[in-house]
Amino acid sequence: MRTRPPDPPRRVTTALPGPRAAQLIQRGSFDLQSPYRAVVFDDLASAGCSLVDVDGNVFLDLFSSFALGALGYNHPAMVAVGRSPEFVAAACNPSSTPFVTSPSWITFMEALQQRFAPPGARHAYCVDAGGEGVESAIKAAFIVHGERRRRAAGRPASPLELPPDEGKAWMENRGTDAVIVSFDGAFHGRGLGPMSATHSKLMHKADLPAFPWPVVPFPANRWPLERYADENAAAEAASLRALADVLDAYAGRVAAVLVEPVQSEGGDRHASAAFFREVQRLAAQAGAALILDEVQTGTGISGRLWCHTWFDLPTPPNFVTFGKKMQLGGYFCDEAHTVQQFGRMYQTRNGDRARGLLALATLETIEADGLLENVRTTGALFLDELSALERSFPTLISQARGRGFLLAFDLPDAGLRDRFNRRCLELGLFASYTGVRSVRLRPHLITGPAEVAEAMGVFRRVCSEMVA
Q: Which of 9, 80, 87, 127 has most Cβ atoms within 10 angstroms of its Cβ?
């Protein structure tokens, strides 16, 4: 990893939010999301792993905006792209990229194909954000599934060749009995399609209409893995039996099985590589696509560019979705799940050329700076330190877990978890939350051993205060 300039020293000198931040939050109250704000940051002063707020407070950022950040703040490679004539032109001259594009987009697609796409990917489809990428993968899975069913019945695959009465059924939302199978605890996005496959928090789903798609239990391995090996194996076996039963009950109707390599919003819940290999086998046996949602787990945070490559799947997944650190959303797919007919997946943008430039800079920097190796080694160090924290404070900290920088640990309940995070923020460390009682850590990929040592110092101090 290239040597970087030292970050600004962490310090908190005001109440939170500080006076200037509080004033700005009030000024911005027309924004419906204003009440959520914890920080108003100075995006010019922030650097590396240091988030600087408008009151001059400096935080060690282990939040990275729910894993959106990749290279830290104001990374030279990203700043250089932002100042380039190509970026200015792409930002100032929006295009309907499927019809009208520029050389920079072609270069981005070529780089994805040759260097950065997951193994087995034959095409990429780009949209603005990760949730929209999941929505698009679900749509593509339904389209391919429907065309296959019609061909198997000796009928036209194209909807334009169907009888008028059947076309009318589609237009009146009566056209399919196909389903997506998802897992308890999943989070796949805020659109109504992905929300039908989301099962993490009631707040996300209350009052919203949803498709009646089947859901099966996720095993949620307990940690340390060696201590809970038998219990975890039993939970995975039960989950797989439930999946097999659902696939049998909906035989011929399952367009896809949708799963995250690590359930992130649902509580940083893991399963073994063997579990995912069996999920893939069952899906293929049922004639269903496998969609791996890598919006949060992709683009390097697991220590590999794509988290599912840790699982040694015998064949590539049919779809891999992306977002967050990629700076745009979308999916990769295999040849069999390429939607060919014009107009079936087209959207006006389908590829923001400015975001494509940022995505390419992110991927090339991960490669050039050896950040995957950094995530593996520093992530292992961080997990060891969190496990030691658990041993030191067994009544407060439990279930330290992770892969790379997908890190988390539990407190006894949500109230204590929120108190822990609030005190960390007061001491200059920005962590996050997930599930019902978990602290979620999503360090920037540049985070090193010095930041781990600093974080553990804060964690130990907060734990000591809480058990005193």
A: 127
